[in-house]
Design goal:
Pfam families: IstB_IS21. It contains 3 helices and 2 strands; from the N terminus they run βαβαα. The protein is an alpha+beta fold and 79 residues long.
């Protein structure tokens, strides 16, 4: 599809989890920094069995969860 990037072997970041658990301390901030530095240069894939609507609980902050979701979904695909 024009305008869409597909994951390739170089520079991809894949985080796989059977469940997102609440992140301790500044863990949500650290994850945001990783995602933000990669956006929009490289592919980032995150798998979890937690509904996106519940990510605020995992990240401990509605704003951080919203920004992480924004960075992951902008010009991306949710499967």
């Amino acid at each position: 599809m024009p305008g869409h990037r597909h994951p390739g072997p170089a520079g991809d970041f894949v985080a796989r989890s059977s469940a997102l658990l609440p992140l301790p301390g500044d863990g949500a901030s650290a994850l945001f920094q990783v995602i933000n530095q990669r956006y929009p240069k490289s592919s980032t894939i995150l798998t979890a069995n937690v509904e996106i609507a519940d990510w605020a609980t995992v990240f401990g902050d509605d704003t951080v969860a919203a920004v992480i979701i924004d960075r992951l979904t902008f010009d991306g695909t949710i499967i």
